Amino acid sequence: MSELETFRAEIRAWIEANCPEEMRRPVQGEDDICWGGRNFVFKSAAQKQWMEVCAAKGYTVPDWPKPYGGAGMSPQEAKVWREELARAGARPPLSSFGIWMLGPALLKFGTEEQKVLYLNQIARGEIRWCQGYSEPGSGSDLVSLQTYGEDKGDHWVVNGQKIWTSYADKADWIFCLVRTDKTNVYQGISFLLFDMTTPGVTTKPIKLISGNSPFCETFFDNVVVPKHQIVGQLNRGWDVAKYLLGHEREMISGAGGGEQTSTIGKVLTRNGLDDPMLRAELAQFDIDALAFAACGEKFLDEIKVGKAHPAKPNMMKYAGTELNKRRHELLMAAGGSTALEWESEETRGGAPARSWLRTKANSIEGGTSEVMLNVVAKRILELPGA
Amino acid sequence: MPLYHTEDQAMLAESVTGFMADEGGIKKQLRHWRDTNCKDGFGHALWKQFAEMGLTGMLAAEADGGLSMGHVEAGIVLAEIGRNLTPSPFLTTSVMGVTALNEASDDLRGRWLPGIIAGETVLAMAIDEGAKHKPEKIACRAEKAGNGFRLTGAKDFVIHGTSADAIIVAARTSGSDSDADGVTLFAVPKDAAGIGHNAVRLVDSSIASHVRFDGVELDGSSVIGEVDGGRAVLSKVLSAGRIGAAAEQTGVAGGAFAMTTGYLKTRKQFGKLIGEFQALQHRAAHLYSELEIAEAVVIKAQQLLDGGSERAELMVSVAKAKAARACNLAVREGVQMHGGVGMTDEYDIGLYMKRERALTEFMGDANYHAERVAQLSGY
Ligand SMILES: Cc1cc2nc3c(=O)[nH]c(=O)nc-3n(C[C@H](O)[C@H](O)[C@H](O)COP(=O)(O)OP(=O)(O)OC[C@H]3O[C@@H](n4cnc5c(N)ncnc54)[C@H](O)[C@@H]3O)c2cc1C
Ligand SMILES: Cc1cc2nc3c(=O)[nH]c(=O)nc-3n(C[C@H](O)[C@H](O)[C@H](O)COP(=O)(O)OP(=O)(O)OC[C@H]3O[C@@H](n4cnc5c(N)ncnc54)[C@H](O)[C@@H]3O)c2cc1C
Predict the structure, then answer these.
(1) What is the DSSP string of B145-188?
(2) Which end of chain B is more exposed for a tag (fewer CB within 10 A), N or C?
(3) Is the ipTM of this complex over 0.95?
């Protein structure tokens, strides 16, 4: 047996021995996700147990180095871990913006102290992070952001407003883009970290079309941020922000979701439908979904060895989110009038309709589809004037 | 296995890319043979060069003088054939034909493989019996006669049928037209009595034949695989042809796309390069995305096929359908974004459109494979 196959056998046995039965059932909705954090209320003992046994082994962030709370897995090993999780139908032990977004940025730009402190907290699910990028006047044109941090020697005093801050009311800390030089557009932004309980931080939830309110307006009124809580250099936060966006886009794209969960054609027989036109649409969709899953796998393989174009996450995000929106359009069509029910028990509180509506944000959050296409045209295709 | 080329494969790709750009280019091959009204539609000298490069026997076993390579490697060659629109018997001979012969007796392999490997022999595949690919139904009959068989029936869309030294024919030896069992594959030499050709030039300038078999006498040694059990071999041949055509389509699409983005960077209207217009940028970026996805699923399916995975058949159909749709988009956008010149014979972009159409039809179009995906997925 090759080393990797031995490793696979070990991982398989470990998951078998440690993953509670309940954590091997498919995630039904947002509230099945384990987000971690100071105030997180675990949905069940099994959810808590699964997160904790994984965290103890570094498996919540398998490819991060061990000193930072990871398991130090190689890219191939991490792939095996993902494959084995999928094979067992096991849920991710912990999901968070810390894992997907801030962590990779800290690994690249953080000081040793920051890495040891923040990454371990993320890996153990102790601190939950939110992302303070967008502002009312700065969405796609993010670099125009106005939230200002005034230099007060050993700290900044931050004033301004963010919007669409996902889970701001549930998060413990925020990674935030703040203007620290008003005379320089790109090189006048700093990437700051601060506690959401700092005096002057307030949040106001916004209700979404899905009926949920996972995001907020976030206000900063003379918020004091110590200087050591900057990531990267002063006024060079845009570099950190862009790097992080790459990881965010990769995550939203669903690359690495694997083949198993991507196809939906079977809904036809499950719902007892005899509809040749829908069947044809489902088959076309499944082709695109399986092809995209292969593309996700290829992208992750390439990124680990530096073969992927640095702007590739933009393409993946575009394709993955447009696909996911189509998936939910078809699931609604296959559900018919049942899928319209907003509160019924049969639909688990309108899950199909709410999920369908939620997916519409996929091609907006983290950069819109149009912006993704702009970036591809400019950075990959190198078209003029883009 | 990671979804990119190994070092050996990358080296192969580099040498094949250079070789094909030098020798297989549109002016040197496709336009030349088309404009001289060549009866075969491809150049035999280039086929010889393929042999010198070691490409003709890639899929044959080392024991038979081949290289024992797989569909990833064959796909590398096919992508370059596609990019250059090179007319070549490679797909029917070295990919599908050799896949069939690999299942054949020592006798048959000894009879045909050396010529193929030397670049002297060409094979054609006679599978379809109608305007659309439908290998589930095979009506062409081979009746038992003495020690051998007598072949009667008609086959369509037999690419290189008239130039082939042998035609590999899927025929019915028992049962009714749509039965799964009762199919047998034969290697029929071109000089067998009773073969009639109606050769036709196709839109992409390749030559196909409507072949008629009028009581063609075959001895038992021309059977490939088991009598009545030919489906097993046929399905390997079909998978090889499908993933091969898909690989070729990614090359066609890539060639058309490069030409188109090149044009966007040089053509000026309204005082600007047309590539500055966002309406075109977004379509080009979308097309790029589709092509990346198609390329990924093609290599995925190639690897699964080479690894003997049980998911290979499904993924081959996914790949063939996806490559067809992506390639179709590439050539349609290509012609459109070229404006008026895209409609001229002088520009090459229209040639890509023609090749795409023929390749899409070859071994099942996107709808055929969507139906298969649904069936193989159980709905
Ligand atoms: C569910 C959800 C969660 C979010 N979570 C967060 C979060 O946690 N933190 C955070 O900071 N932000 C978050 N966002 C905000 C998100 O990043 C922004 O909504 C996004 O960047 C778009 O900005 P906007 O909403 O201002 O739209 P606008 O930028 O005003 O765009 C409006 C429309 O114009 C198009 N458009 C804009 N510019 C161009 C252009 N140059 N070319 C072509 N078309 C263009 C857009 O594509 C879009 O269709 C979230 C958004 C959603 C929906
Ligand atoms: C079969 C045929 C017959 C014709 N017959 C005649 C005739 O009898 N008489 C005659 O005078 N002309 C004729 N034409 C010419 C025809 O009108 C032009 O081809 C057409 O106006 C496009 O111009 P172009 O070919 O220069 O393409 P271009 O203008 O160079 O366009 C190239 C591409 O860029 C796109 N593009 C250009 N500008 C923009 C923009 N601002 N925003 C977004 N996209 C843009 C175009 O849509 C196209 O996709 C004929 C053309 C054809 C193909």
Answers:
(1) ETTEEEEEEEEEEEETTTT-SEEEEEEESSS-TT-SSSEEEEEE
(2) N
(3) yes
